[in-house]
Amino acid sequence: MSKELIRLRDVCMAFDDELVLDHLNLYFNDKEFLTLLGPSGCGKTTTLRIIGGFVTPTSGDVLFDGVRINDVPPYQRQINTVFQKYALFPHLNVYENIAFGLRMQRRPDPNDPTGKRKVKIPEEEIDQRVMEMLEVISLKGFEHRKPDALSGGQQQRVAIARALVNKPKVLLLDEPLAALDLKLRKDMQIELKRIQQQVGITFIYVTHDQEEALTMSDTIVVMDKGTIQQIGTPEDIYNEPKNAFVADFIGESNIIDGVMLQDNLVQMYGKKFPCLDGGFAENEPVDVVIRPEDIDIVPVEQGQLTGVVTSVTFKGMQYDIIVDFKGFKWLIQTTDHCPEGSRIGIKIDPDGIHVMKKSQYSGMFGDYSSFSEEYDELDDASLELDEEESGDEE
Amino acid sequence: MRNKLPLLSIPYVVWMALFVVAPIIMVVIYAFSSAAGGFTLANFARMGTYTVVFTRSFKLALIATAICLLVGYPVSYMMSKEGPRFQRIAMVLIMLPMWMNFLLRTYSWMAILENNGLLNQLFQKIGLISLYNNIFGTDLTFFRMINTQGAVVLGMVYNYLPFMILPIYSVIVKLDHSLIEAARDLGANSFNVFRRVILPLSLPGVLSGITMVFVPSVSTFAISKMLGGGTEMLLGDLIEQQYMGGAYNPQLGAAISLVMMVIVVVCMWVMNRFGEGEEQAVMM
To answer: What is the ipTM score, two decimals?
Structure first.
């Protein structure tokens, strides 16, 4: 990635004495697809709105290309936004919606040597740029439709075109796919990534959907309670979660108490497991993350650990089984069928074991004793989101 | 289910038939009848005599509607931008006069506007009248306010202003705030946000406000009688005379009503056509 474009320096935001952003430090590179990921109320939408200029931070600086822009109104920023519910103008057709930003623009008159006189963008150029955009979003022939005569996915694309036609340096997207159904959402993820690469500008994307974040992003910023938990590439975040919160939020994780005996050796359940992590103090208590797909099922006598299968769920590509290891329940994903009540052994390769320092989140996640509840929460996430996120916009 | 007339709507249908449709049919029949009962167009032939009244009625109603719009729109707009507590209080203040009897309200204006009424007394006290006399070399003891067209318009505006404010306010307050943010995001300053987004989207409210002020204004008779002193006769007064006054002629009254109704309906239709491009048709 190339040079830095936006920087948030020590940004705090409080609504009614409630700290929504807590000394946030973050930078955004040019031409990067960056995702702010976190549960509702983590401050991701507020961060986006600060960049967009819709709210002013309580303290701290917002820098754009090195210039402080805290007090620059939204219409003077080279930033455009795709809103959660699209916010297309219902009284204007698709063409006029896309042309809106261009019609607002004034630029120095090329015929005026002093460069002081401002003129509108000529109608031919507006027409050409709108048509270009219609092509990018594959909606040619729809220009005279009103927004309410479009499907959700089409409205979505018009909203993107309406923002992109202004050639912003940064496009902000606030959960733009939340209102679409699953199939369309998957298509639009790929479409968005394509558009971002085609126009070559920075996308800052807000979502609570970890899968969406992993699919599209160059960089993911995981947030919770107004602070950044981890910044990294999708692979980093998934493979090397920094704490129990990140491990739990991104994908499924078994998080087990352990003790780091020495570099590359961790102890769980009183047994020693070789691993690839180091740099801890001797005998330091740690959290150990084991992904459900990194666990091999082996005959009992060959297992590093043995446990009893307590539930089996068929998921199509694999079985999700819950295995009780001395009272702590793990989730294991396997293609082998293990009947309920059977005793199995497991083996974990060193690269399947991720050791993390203890954090405020230790002990809060990673136990599948209440497996079904946890699954329900995942499904509900999208429903909760609408209300809570709009709540902190006030 | 869809094609069956829902049972619950029957009371309303009966009501409409008895008290709306039937009277209109009677008006039409009367308008084309002579005193003896036969068919005639004579009632309409006499209409030309009343051109002055027609034009005066429409002129005053138009002026009153325009003033209501000019006053009501900014009020609605400001109100919608304030907090919910302010909005509730403002709403009560706007509705408050409507809780009083219409005639009582208009009588109060008589007491205020009379030649030796409250306003003139005030003007005398603060020396406004003598100041006026000095400047213009006149010899007035009071300003003539009552029994003028201005007083009639004032009465209309005072009585019907809430009908302009309420529909406009309810449309603006329901506007999706993200549309305003989107416009700002796309480079619109405050003026353009208003002109390109808020104004066009509030047009349905404006249209129903205009309708709700114009229609009662054009047909009013109490206001002109009390504040216009009978010198500024309006359509409403003219029609009333045909039924209650000495010139008893219900057939002519019906004809005048019918003509007025047709003109109003045409006006509203044209206006709604004009507004159709912006939003769905507005209630009539």
So the answer is: 0.75
